[in-house]
Amino acid sequence: MNEFIIETKDLTKKYTTNSVALDHVTLSIEEGDIFGFLGHNGAGKTTTINMLTTLLEPTSGSARVGGFDVVTNPFEIKRIIGYVPENVQLYGSLSSQENLEYFARLSGIKDPKKAITEITQFLDIGNYLDKRVQTLSKGMRQRIGLAQAILHNPKVLFLDEPTSGLDPIGVKQLRDTIIRLNSEKGMTIFMNTHLLSEVSKTCKTIGILNQGKLVYKGSLSDATHAFKNEQALEDMYITTQKHESA
Amino acid sequence: MNNIYTIARKELIDIVRSRIFVLTLGLLVVLIFISLFISETLFRDQVFQYEKSLALLKSLGKAPVGEAPQLYPLNLLRGVVDYIEIFGAILGIFLGYISVFKEKHTNAIKLMLTRPITKNEIIFGKILGNFSFVFALLSLVTVFIAGSLMWFSGVALSGVDVVKLALFVVLSSVYILIFFTISFFFSFQQKVATNALIISFSLWLVIALIFPQIGDTMDPDNQVPGGFFKSMALTKPQELRVMDNFKNFEFIRTGVEQLSLTKHYERSVFGFFGIKKQYNGVPLADIFKDKWGNMLTTFCFLIVGLLANILYLRRTHHFFE
């Protein structure tokens, strides 16, 4: 059994344009963690998630999720992960129920209806199941998107900018849900974000990415020790970005 | 297989709930009605002209010459085939484009590709769903065609006619699906969605319009309305002897036509419907024997389209680069 549920070693991604999106990132995340991956736009956060979810192949280095290599065992990884991409909209002409049934079947769930009932109770979205997704608010669509990702009770849940475009109530609901998924279902959460307030309220450990390089990885409490002069997470984040950009 | 069925079912529901279904069904029904009406009117005019000539000859005390125009109801479907060639291809292109664009636009493609399913299951699921839609749409349209034919011509369709119409549904579905695979391929391959449409329509223009038109324009017999050889009162053996002197020209002309999927589809369906007069009254098995090459080539185009998608989608990683 692996000590770490997510491990990367010198993970690098160069795009066809020859730009380096991710530069020798070595990272390890323990099972049961809520990990916040911070960085400005274009820092390489989504590229990292795309590789960990097997959507992209690394140029060099390696990555393992749940002990499985992202290149040689993508199917095994897909069985144990859930994923909510940024701005997920699902299929607008289908109802929430139909969307959930569709993804439940593709996840190999034998009894989709039972799984949907459990998840809708957990997320309190029962009243929206019959509605077509295109008629739902952004916040509700995000919750249905989250529901499809956790139907099969994954070990690891990847969230890419999950609070993007949500109103404050939606943000709080999502934050509470993430914490509950972690505490009640034991899911490891890997969350890309640039909202520092969300990280400080939700995450146990953080990683900071700047121009494709990991410039900090550790617990939130360690972070405040490492940056003694900057108590606030925001100041710390800005400092790491400045150091690297300089 | 379950995943293919799940994806196909979703695809079908998605299309049926969109406006495409009602719009295309409505458009095809109106166009087909108009086409059949025009064909029927032209046929009645032929009969009228023949009877008029007959009456004139009789009044002059002369014996009738030429055969009376004969009504083969399926002959009236020439316009319908033309519509399928043009609008069916456009429908296929739009279906392929929408099928991919929706996935990309909503990020649902990422959700699918992070499920334990194969890329081939995605392709075959989408193709099965769209084929089912096109097949159902054409079946409905063909039922309408059959009813209209009987109504316009006043002639009941024979069992063989029904089989020919069923073959038309299958071949037309395959034809439309080929354009689906073309557009599906480029919609995945191109980062800018509209580029996929531009490329697909450019190919459509070449395949469905330019190549067949080049072939027709180069045909010596098409240089004079009603047929060059007929106007010169040449018999078939004489015609063949003349054409013997143009073997290389004919080789090139036929070659250009052979490149066109539309021409293969057209030749097959024209054979079944007897739009090419030599196939009227010919047993179905004989038409099959004569047209199997065209049908096989049509299916080959579909296989090439499928293979291109399967091979290309093996390396989907670049979508997210």
Protein model, in words:
The complex is a heterodimer of chains A (246) and B (321). By secondary structure, chain A is of the alpha/beta class. Helix content of chain A is 39%, strand content 26%. Chain A has a single domain, classed as 3-Layer(aba) Sandwich (Rossmann fold), CATH 3.40.50. Chain A is built from nine helices and ten strands. In chain A, the strands form two sheets. A six-stranded mixed beta sheet of chain A has the order 6-7-8-3-9-10, sandwiched between helices. A four-stranded antiparallel beta sheet of chain A has the order 2-1-4-5, covered by helices on one side. Chain A is globular, with a radius of gyration of 18 Å. The termini of chain A are far apart. The relative contact order of chain A is 0.17. The mean pLDDT of chain A is 88. Chain B is mainly alpha-helical and 321 residues long. Chain B has one domain. Chain B contains twelve helices and no strands. The longest helix of chain B has 41 residues. The mean pLDDT of chain B is 87. The chains are: A alpha/beta (246), B mainly alpha (321). At the A-B interface, helix 2 and helix 3 of A face helix 1 and helix 4 of B.
Strand content of chain B: under 5%
Number of domains of chain A: 1
CATH class of chain A: Alpha Beta
- Assign the structural class of chain A, choosing from mainly alpha, mainly beta, alpha/beta, alpha+beta, or little secondary structure: alpha/beta
Mean pLDDT of chain B: 87
For the largest beta-sheet of chain B, the strand count, sense and barrel status come to: none
Tell me the CATH architecture of chain A: 3-Layer(aba) Sandwich
**Helix/strand order of chain B, N-terminal first:** HHHHHHHHHHHH
Strand portion of chain A, in percent? 25-35%
Number of strands of chain A: 10
Given as residue ranges, the uncertain stretches of chain A (5+ residues, pLDDT < 50) are none
Q: What count of helical segments of chain A does DSSP give?
A: 9
Name the CATH superfamily assignment of chain A: P-loop containing nucleotide triphosphate hydrolases
Q: Uncertain segments of chain B of ≥5 residues (pLDDT<50)? A: none
Percent helix range of chain A? 25-40%
